[in-house]
Structures are given as C-alpha cells and as structure tokens.
Amino acid sequence: MLKKVLIANRGEIAVRIVRACAEMGIRSVAIYTEPDRYALHVKRADESFSLGDDPLAGYLDPLRIVNLAVETGCDAIHPGYGFLSENAEFARLCEKNNITFIGPKSTVIDKMGDKTAARDSMREADVPITPGSDGNLADLDEALSLAEEVGYPVMIKATSGGGGRGIRRCDSAEELRQQYPRVISEATKAFGSAEVFLEKCIVNPRHIEVQILADTHGNVIHLYERDCSIQRRNQKLIEIAPSPQLTPEQRDYVGDLAVRAAQAVGYENAGTVEFLLTGNEVYFMEMNTRVQVEHTITEQITGVDIVREQIRIAAGEKLSYRQQDIQYRGFALQFRINAEDPKNDFLPSFGRITHYYAPGGPGVRVDTAIYTGYEIPPYFDSMCLKLVVWALDWEDAINRGQRALDDMRLHGIKTTATYYQQILNHPDFRSGHFDTGFVPAHPELLNYSDKRRPSAVALALATAIAAHTGW
Ligand code: ADP
Ligand code: ADP
Ligand code: MG
C-alpha cells in the first residue's frame, strides 16, 4: 500500500483526498501558492509546501511538483480534477521518477484525454459517437463542408477543452464562420492548444455519464450513472444519481457501453464516460480520465468510496467489488454552490465569507474548503462548496435538498443557492423530466427575492401590527 501521497490540487477536492488518505493511514502532502496560505487543504494535510507567489504557476508546474514528491519521500501523486489531472506529460514525468500517478497510464490519457483521439478509439470499439469530425479540423473550409454533411446545428469544440469552455453552437454557415475563429482563440487562451473539431449538435439532449472503476488486473466495473442535464452554458449546476429518467434497459445499456469503452483502451483507475441521450439514442461524448466533481453522488447511492478505490488501484490492488456487488439505493443530488451572482449574469462574487453555518441533519453531506472568515481568492474556480443530499425516493431527495439549502448560511458573498431552490420547485424538475435545455428555457427562475423568506412568526406579527395600527 502507498505510504505518502502528494496532492497536486487545492480547495475541496484536495481536502477530500486528505480525508481518504487519513482514513487509510497514508500521510498526505499539500502544495499551495501564496494566495492559498490560509486554505483548508494546507491546514488539514500532514505536511504542506509553498510553491511561490504566483497564484496559479505552482499548481501547474509538473517538474516542480514531481521533484517535491521525490524530495518529501512520497510514493504517489493524486492530481484531483482540473489543473494537471489530464496532462499526459505530468503522468509520464511521474512514471519516469518512480512516483505512482493516481490515474490511468499516460498513454491512456493521450488516447482519452484528447477529445478527437477518444472519438477515434470509440469508433474502433464500436461505441456510437456523435456524427462529426475524423480528427481535428484543418481549416474553416473543412468545417463548412463537414457541417453541410452532418446538418446544422453543429458544435465547434476545443479538442483539449474542459469545464464547459471552448464549445460553441452554430445554427448556420454564417454563424460557423463567426464562431470558428472565436473557439480557436478561446481554446488557445484557456487550454494552450488551437485544435478544434466539429460535432453534430444534439438539440436538448440529456447528459448521462457513467462512473467506472478499473484495476490493473483487467477488472472493470461501473457504478451506475449520473444525470448532469441541469447545466448553464455547458457547465453542470445540479447533478443527480441515478438518473430519474432512464428505463432499466437504458441504464444497463449505458453501463455496459461505458465498461466496453474503458476496456477498449486498457483503462485503469476511476474514470467517467459521458454520453448524450436523445429519445432512445445514445452517443459517446467524452471520457474524463480523473475523479469528477460529482463523484460524491455516486458514493452516496452505492456506498463505494471512489477516492479510496483510486488509491487502492494505483497501489496495484484488485478492485474491492465485483459488478454484482454494486447496488444503488435512493437518490442523491449535488448542488454546486458557486460564488457567483445569478442575478448579474452569474458574475463571480469573490471576497470574505463573513459567516458560514453548515447545513446538516440526515442525508446531508458537505464537501468544501471554506470557513467563516475565509477569503475566496479571485484566481480560481468559483465553485466554493458542494452540497450533497440523499434520500430513499426522488421526492424526498428534492425536499431534503430544499431543506438543506435553507439550512445553510453563507454570508459575505453571493451564491447560486437560492437559484437552485427555484429549480427544485419547478414542476418539470420535480416530475423528473428535464434536459440540457431546462436552464435556458426558464429565465423566470432568476426572478426570486434575495431576502430570506420571513418566518411564519414574523409574518403573523407583521399582520397583527398592521391590523392594530390600521395600515
Ligand atoms: P467535471 O467534469 O468533474 O464535472 P468540470 O468540467 O466542472 O468537472 O471541471 C472541473 C474543474 O476542472 C473546473 O475548474 C474546470 O475548469 C477544470 N477543468 C476541467 N477540464 C479541464 C481541462 N481540460 N483543462 C483545464 N481545466 C479543466
Ligand atoms: P467539457 O469537456 O467541457 O465537459 P463536453 O464535451 O463534455 O465538454 O460538453 C459539455 C456540455 O456541452 C455537455 O454536457 C452538453 O450539454 C454540451 N454538448 C457538448 N457536445 C454537444 C453536442 N454535440 N450536442 C449537444 N450538446 C453538446
Ligand atoms: Mg464533459
């Protein structure tokens, strides 16, 4: 088993990994840059090291991180999500230095971390993919003729994109001409690669993804699916496991497809295969070769500790479970509480958290790195807390979500919490019928009052005073 793990990440996921290490008797080493000096992952890890003043550079420096792992006597690195997690060079550097990379082999990251390479592998493995490019686009002319072939609307996507960025829908040749250079420049800026490809746009699909686990002994299992259709601008807001809108046949079909996809590329460790569903059709979209933000809800319905399994697999152990051991129970929802102002086009709202009171009670889990007095730095992702609820049935899970969002107090910054309560109240959401078009179709859900609902006592008192004074 591993003895000491360096965590090449920050925020809630770094804390999540520290927790897994602590439970497994593994020492953890945190890294941080100066704006994160007072961050929770720094306090919670067994050791922590500063990687300089620049907010980002340290987290993105493969050589420095691997060297630090060697110097501090670590035997492995956990990359978390984002940052270097899908960087094949980083994984290669670990391999070269005898540091175990907690993830798949670098050659598999090359194959699946790159969206067009992944499409090629899936085509070979007979996994259905969205109609579109063979490889990257050479130029606008190729994009235009391919779009004619597959039919509008189409999507132009950054090959090494992630986090919902570098994706544009084009409804006509004119739009394609406009968007093509924009995606290239966005891809270059955000991902350091100008490569883009084209796919048919599936109009208002459901986003269904399957969590898989694969060990180094050839065993691959899936932990059922998550429904991440509640998105804004291709970014997930609320995630649900299992999907309330799959038939048992569809569930088995996507589960098997994901296992087949993983087997086809010799996948090892935890990964997610993302699909788009429309009617009865299923298309492979991409594979994320890392732990995902929403792994929490799968943990809640299956009881499997995914980060622990990642560490065990990396240490060369066999999976703790066979497919038939995996059962799911109830429904789990995750709310990504972002430091953003929904009423102001979701503008980031960084600053000091003047007061934080965690929600709790039955079926509630919080993964976060914030605390009262913590100042959210403006350099990183705006997600500041993941609120996860679980209940035996769908309606109870929604009601628990409402209650837990009500429970939570997070003052000093604007967040998406109240907006999520509006979504939970919507009859389409409650009935379990929604797709990726839900958020754009319901702008009215943004018209809520920022004031907290007055309590029943306060309302009765106000009415009594009004009656008494003759208002
Ligand atoms: P998930 O796929 O786990 O649902 P997201 O797509 O929301 O996660 O991304 C999680 C974090 O990782 C975000 O901060 C996002 O910007 C970052 N990220 C994801 N993919 C990439 C990538 N290819 N390059 C850089 N950052 C990425
Ligand atoms: P990222 O790496 O940023 O997660 P994805 O390829 O997973 O990018 O796409 C993110 C989201 O964009 C999807 O969940 C979906 O809502 C939307 N999307 C991507 N490709 C398509 C498509 N071909 N048709 C319709 N929607 C798409
Ligand atoms: Mg994705």
Itemize the secondary structure elements and their pairings.
Elements: E1 4-7, H1 11-24, E2 27-32, H2 40-44, E3 47-50, H3 62-71, E4 76-78, H4 88-96, E5 100-101, H5 106-112, H6 115-124, H7 140-150, E6 154-158, E7 167-170, H8 173-191, E8 196-200, E9 206-214, E10 220-232, E11 235-241, H9 248-264, E12 269-278, E13 281-288, H10 295-302, H11 306-314, E14 331-338, E15 340-341, E16 347-348, E17 351-352, E18 355-357, E19 364-368, E20 375-376, E21 383-391, H12 394-407, E22 409-411, H13 417-425, H14 427-430, H15 438-441, H16 456-469
The structure holds adenosine-5'-diphosphate (2 copies) and magnesium ion.
Function: This protein is a component of the acetyl coenzyme A carboxylase complex; first, biotin carboxylase catalyzes the carboxylation of the carrier protein and then the transcarboxylase transfers the carboxyl group to form malonyl-CoA.
Protein name: Biotin carboxylase
Subunit structure: Acetyl-CoA carboxylase is a heterohexamer of biotin carboxyl carrier protein, biotin carboxylase and the two subunits of carboxyl transferase in a 2:2 complex.
